Amino acid sequence: MKQKGLGRGLDAIFGSDPIDVKLKPMSEMAEIDIADIIPNPTQPRTQFDEEALDELADSIRQLGVIQPVTVKRTDGGKYIIISGERRWRAAQRADLKSLPAYIREVDDENLHAMALVENIQRQDLNAIEIALGMQRLIDECHLTQDALSEKVGKKRSSVSNYLRLLKLPDEVQLALKEGLISMGHAKAIAGAPAEQQLRVLKRCVKKGLSVRQAEELVRMLSETPAQPAQPEEEEYPESYSRLVELLEPCFSQEISIKRTKNGGGRIVIGFSDDKDIERFIERFSQRS
Asked: pLDDT for 177-211, tens place per residue?
């Protein structure tokens, strides 16, 4: 799922200063030993596609590093990556000893912001990684949501939507992180009553609901008067699902299996009218 860029991008970080002031932090370029480059501990991305890294490494072996990485010099003589960690990782796989790099002088607040913005614009951070990056900026740089929205060039409402994701149950966050649901699904789930959010998640994943269908489900749940807590829906053996699949071609209506605590149960076959019954009989007659 392709992510959208963050509005005004890196320009949002440095504001509207004259061009010569903006260029000062990136006035130095050098070839730096890979061993002296370290990843950004505040890097918002937590997952890297191994296959994509191998492909990038092959490209680097053939063409070299076309675009320099951007780094910040530390007091200990090392260089922290601001942007280009994928290139740095791939260059290591390609057995390069050094990398071309822009050296920028930035404070910690702008280092965090630049890493977040660069990652969102250039690669597919998932929504949870974006939300965690934003929350880290708020916590460590003492930013308000308004200040953060200015920093990363996003509307305040978008910032709020991302931060709301971190209040969702862990199961919902994991499903979003692994691509089982989209940001739209997660926003819909966030609008459901807290006790119903996992139920909505299960319906979205099992039934393959669209975002609109998820929103409609949440609306219905929100309008329904509160009911006494129901026991969690029981997970049935795989054989039950296979039985339903075998019966569906015969009945073409909703089929459900309910199992009681003593191990018995019932199979419920829905039908619309008497004509459905006649059709059921006809189909069984053809099979006998």
From this structure: 888 999 999 999 999 988 899 989 998 998 888 99
Cα 11–chain centre separation: 25
CATH of the domain at 203: 1.10.10.2830
Lowest average pLDDT, out of 4-13, 15-24, 93-102, 140-149, goes to 15-24
Q: How far apart are CA 153 and CA 160, in angstroms?
A: 13
Spot the catalytic one: 55, 85, 216, 248: 85
Q: How far is CA 233 from the centre of its chain?
A: 27
Q: Do 38 and 149 sit in the same domain of this protein?
A: yes
- pTM, entire model: 0.51
Whole-number Å distance between alpha carbons of 85 and 88:
5
86 and 140 housed in the same domain? yes
Indicate whether 104 and 61 sit together in one domain: yes
Q: Which of the listed residues 143, 163, 183 is the one where a domain comes to its end?
A: 163
Query: Residue 222 class from Cβ within 10 Å (0-12 exposed, 13-18 middle, 19+ buried)?
Result: exposed
Length of the chain: 288
**By residue range, what is the domain housing residue 272?**
238-287
Tally of domains in the chain: 3
Closest CA to 33 of 75, 71, 82: 71
Ordered alpha helix ranges (H), the chain:
11-14, 19-23, 50-63, 85-93, 108-122, 127-141, 145-152, 156-165, 170-177, 183-190, 197-207, 211-223, 238-251, 274-287
Q: Does residue 248 have an active-site annotation?
A: no
My answer on whether 21 and 151 are in the same domain is: yes
Is the residue at 264 inside a domain?
A: yes
Amino acid identity, position 10: L
